[in-house]
Structures are given as structure tokens and as C-alpha cells.
UniProtKB/TrEMBL annotation:
<dbReference type="GO" id="GO:0003676">
    <property type="term" value="F:nucleic acid binding"/>
</dbReference>
<keyword id="KW-0806">Transcription termination</keyword>
<keyword id="KW-0809">Transit peptide</keyword>
<protein>
    <submittedName>
        <fullName>Uncharacterized protein</fullName>
    </submittedName>
</protein>
<dbReference type="Pfam" id="PF02536">
    <property type="entry name" value="mTERF"/>
</dbReference>
<comment type="similarity">
    <text>Belongs to the mTERF family.</text>
</comment>
<dbReference type="InterPro" id="IPR003690">
    <property type="entry name" value="MTERF"/>
</dbReference>
<dbReference type="InterPro" id="IPR038538">
    <property type="entry name" value="MTERF_sf"/>
</dbReference>
<keyword id="KW-0804">Transcription</keyword>
<keyword id="KW-0805">Transcription regulation</keyword>
<dbReference type="GO" id="GO:0006353">
    <property type="term" value="P:DNA-templated transcription termination"/>
</dbReference>
Amino acid sequence: MFRLLRENLLRVRINGGSSSPASKTSLLCFFHGNPSLKSITHSSESTPTAPTSSSLTISYLTTSCGLSSELALRASKWFTLKTTKNADLVLDCLRNHGFELTHIAKVIGQRPDLLKLHPERILNSKMDFLMRYGFSSSQLINLLSKDPSILTRSLENQIIPSLEFLKGLVGTQENVIAAINRSAYTVRPSRLKRLVPNISSLRDHGVPNSYVSKFIIKQPDMFTMVDPDRFRTSVVAVHGMGFNPLSTRFVEAVRAMLMSKSGWDEKYELYRSLGWSDGDFMSAFRMFPQWMFSSEKKVNRVFEFFVGELGWEPPSLSRCPVLITLSLEKRVIPRCSVLEVLLSKGLIEKDMKWSTALKLTEKQFLERFVTKYEEEAAELMRAYHGMTESKGNPVHA
């Protein structure tokens, strides 16, 4: 079974056969040998003070910061306010940067100790820097609402070196911001430490730097959340399965292999229950590993439409797994409605592969199947915009 194959592949002992010691050493030296980057491995996360409870603290957290009574009580056991003077200035600082009460509640709920920091010298300087760096007001609010601990780190010794290190990997400040927007925790020191060995694992197996950069931007958590040993084992397994490292499919397969064992088992059992064999599962994975990330609800709906309504055999979807990832409402159903009209009028062959039409860009589809047929164009456009019902005739995959 494919599950056993995956487990066997993941047991492959890493022997460094195709690795490039020079490239790995170079990258590690850059990270560990750069004085400005050494400090990012030491976060200034605060530790709780002795548990205490203060009516002033709880009252301030609920009325001024928007926390629930439960969260305020919990926070008051970690720190206490003797006066609200500095806290008021902190909230003013946040409001001046566009934070509303709901945002303030998220930030202070996670890091109530921010209320004790110097609003101008510590908080305002860092937020102003991030704005100058290129973060919009909404992006800054989103970042700090998810990870307010960035405000507790040194600007000169941690934040700036972290951003510059990431920029060295993805090329531009815009790409840095794009990666952080997808995962606010990307520039946490503990996360950045995993980037170096995980990137090296891909480079050692021949994955181009351009692909590595692309996936750091698109899927930063893939590189920053996964233990390096587990990451490398997955890369070795994918390489052993014959994926081409010069194709983005290689990295997509690695991402899929990083899914938990329980996640794999659930996917496997789901597709088996819908009519796939082990061979179908393996074939689909080799062809388009991204389909592994489709939800169970989405998968069931896709099979219901293609198998139940259009009459396809379940294995047909394994031969074109990209269809599982397409939007039914916005793409698949409208196009199938057009194809059904054309089929009923004899304008397309009965044995035409509909999967080909479904994979076309919108412009290509309209040119080939709508505007090409002038006399039927109006009817076809009505079908395309959902003004006709699908007849559910059996068609070829």
C-alpha cells in the first residue's frame, strides 16, 4: 500500500550522498558567522513575575484594553499595574498606528507586559521602522495582532538583522513582507534558525535557488516550523521516488510528505472509500501532489459532481488530480454547462476529454468554446453564467 511505501521512504537513512558540503557550509557560516545575526537566536521574551492579582490591573485590562474578564484575570497573575500612566501612553501609541479596540485586545491579551514598555523609545520606534520598511498600516496591525512579541525584541540587534537575513533569501523587501504576511512568526529567532538547514536540504538535492525563494514566500511555515531532520528525511524520500528537483513539483511533494502520519492516513482512507486503488493514489501523488491539501468536504463534493453527476469513473480523477483543486462553483460547473450545450448540438465530439477544457485559462476556454461559436454564443454565455442547469450526461474525462 502507498502508506507503507511512504513510511519506508521516510525511514531512509540520510547519508548525505547527493549533498553539497560547500553550499551547506557557506550558508551556515553566513548565518552563524555574521555578528549582526547571532543575536537573533536570543529572543527577549519576558518571563512572568510572581503570580499576583490586582483589581486595578483586571479593571484596566477589561475596560481599556477590551479583554474578557477571564483573560484579564489570567493576565493579572503574570504581571500587575501599579499605575496606568505608562499603560495609557502605550494604548495611545497603538491607536495612533490605527489599532482599534479589537486589535488592542488581541495584542495585549497575548502580551500584557507591553503595557510596561516605554511607548516612544521602544514601541513607537519599532512600529515606525516597520512602516518605513514597507508594511502598510493594515499589514502592521495584522502582524502585531498575531505576534506582538516582535515589539519586545531589539530593533538594531534582532528585528533589522532578521529582516535583512530573510531578504537575502527572497530577494526584495516586498517579498519579505509577503512571506511575513502569510506567517507572522516567520521572523521569530527560533523559526529563522530552522531556515538554514531546511534550505540546505533542498539545495543539496539540486533544487534551484529560485524555487527555494518562491516557496519561502508562498509557504514560509514549511521551512520555519519543521524540524530539520524530519525535513531532510522527506526531501530524501521525494528524491527517491523519482521527482525531478528542477520542477516545482519536487518541493510540492516535500510539502505533502511533511503532513502528519494521521493526516496521510485520513487522506488515504478517504480516497480508498471513494474508489481509488493504491496505484491510483500513487499515480495522483506523482502527477500533482498539491491535491493532498484539499479538504475532505471539498473532495467529497468533487467526487459527487464528477462521478455522481457526470458519470466519470473514480480512477479518472487520479489521472487528472488537478481537477480536485479547482473551484466547482467558479470554474468546473460553469464550463461543464457550456460543454453540455455544445455536446447536445453536436459541436464537440462525444469522446473529447473534458479535463483538457477544464484546465485551460479562462481566456483560452472562452475563445475555444464560446466566442468561436457565434450563433450559439448568447446561449453559451448564459450557460457559463449559470443560467442553465447541468443535464448530468456521461462524458469523457
